[in-house]
Design goal:
This protein has 16 helices and no strands. With 387 residues, the protein is mostly helical. The two termini are 20 Å apart.
């Protein structure tokens, strides 16, 4: 029997959450530069977005799993991220920016892994429908990255924190509209021992290591892409257009993903997605002043982000079914996104210092190539009896 899925409520949270990232990810380094921070300092501050993922998802999930009403912690996290972001309205030096980034990033990163578990609890037995819900996050990102790119051509980037506050408020509002599905309300406490056993399986270890390397490879994009394009004469509106191009085709991939995964194994999609990332970073390194090549590279975002993420969620649903989902999501975000994202930002900063943006994106291509090799050699679905 096909589960009844509250798609509108789930989609609204993705839209609001990724709208915040549409204002934060492309433009926050420009805001930090406007605050007088150096490239090295920006690398350190941006790495906190990922470093907090190491502890925030697992610790928040641990608290939620022991609560009689775990969704309450999703709502607390969203309210706390809104409240802590208000600190950026003040004139902060590096030390205070560091502290504010730690607090805001911790709370904001704590919420999405828990919400992914909420979504999968509604999609129990129909995980291929994930992409059709998640695409609304991409639409939220597109809407804000395009709108704010236009606005920042006409207003000072110092206004960015004030512009982002309504987006964070929207995330908090939509958190109150959602709750776990029936699958998650059954036997939550039985998940702990099964998690340890699964984390020792070679297929799952290889999967997490590959995801870690992919996240490292995205470091230059998330940390310095705005500065990289600015160095080559691009305006903020064109930067926003590049992001819109990438995320617009990402929506298409999420839309067709239910049919895609009925025909193509998730590990095959994962391999193609990671290989395309290696080519994207190499093209970005070698041809930054060729607009059509940069636009084409952004089009591959549909594959190396959307297809990658959708395939990863398919494998996660298989590797960590039922009550294991929340714990698995905590590990996924903490290790691959957290450790990988922090290393990606720090490595990108060092590469930028040694050889500029070109070297940073060349290193990114190398990390993605190694990840593709690992997926090709070791990532497999679990044997039927082990599921």
């Amino acid at each position: 029997m096909t589960p009844i899925v509250p798609a509108l409520r789930l989609s609204s949270f993705y839209f609001a959450y990724y709208a915040v990232l549409g204002g934060f990810t492309p433009y926050w380094s420009l805001y930090l530069k406007d605050r007088g921070q150096s490239e090295a300092a920006i690398g350190v501050l941006m790495s906190l977005w990922y470093a907090t993922r190491i502890v925030a998802p697992s610790s928040w999930n641990w608290i939620a799993a022991r609560s009689p009403r775990p969704v309450r912690w999703l709502r607390i996290g969203c309210i706390a991220s809104l409240a802590s972001f208000c600190a950026f309205l003040l004139p902060l030096d590096f030390a205070w920016l560091f502290a504010a980034m730690c607090v805001f990033c911790f709370f904001h990163n704590a919420t999405m892994p828990q919400f992914e578990a909420i979504t999968l609890s509604h999609l129990h037995g129909a995980s291929e429908r994930y992409g059709a819900i998640r695409l609304w996050g991409s639409l939220g990102f597109i809407t804000i990255v395009g709108l704010y790119g236009f606005l920042l051509d006409h207003v000072a980037v110092a206004w960015l924190p004030l512009l982002m506050l309504p987006l964070l408020a929207g995330t908090a509002v939509t958190a109150f509209a959602n709750d776990y599905g029936p699958a998650q309300h059954q036997a939550r406490s039985a998940a702990g021992s099964g998690l340890r056993e699964r984390l020792r399986r070679p297929e799952i270890l290889a999967f997490f290591i590959a995801c870690l390397l992919v996240q490292i490879s995205f470091g230059p994009l998330y940390t310095f892409f705005a500065l990289y394009l600015e160095q080559h004469g691009y305006k903020a509106s064109l930067l926003g257009l590049f992001w819109v191009i990438g995320v617009a085709v990402e929506v298409l991939v999420f839309f067709v993903s239910p049919r895609l995964f009925l025909r193509v194994p998730a590990q095959t999609v994962l391999l193609v997605a990671i290989a395309s990332a290696a080519l994207r970073w190499l093209a970005t390194a070698l041809f930054p002043e060729t607009v059509w090549i940069m636009a084409l590279a952004q089009l591959t975002h549909a594959i190396n982000f959307a297809a990658f993420f959708a395939a990863a969620m398919q494998l996660m649903a298989q590797y960590f079914p039922g009550p294991l989902a929340g714990h698995g999501q905590g590990v996924f975000y903490g290790f691959s996104s957290g450790v990988g994202g922090a290393l990606g930002a720090l490595i990108a900063g060092q590469a930028w210092h040694l050889g500029g943006g070109r070297l940073a994106f060349e290193w990114a291509a190398g990390f993605a190539a190694v990840a593709a090799l690992i997926v090709w050699r070791w990532v497999r679905p679990l044997p039927a009896l082990a599921r």
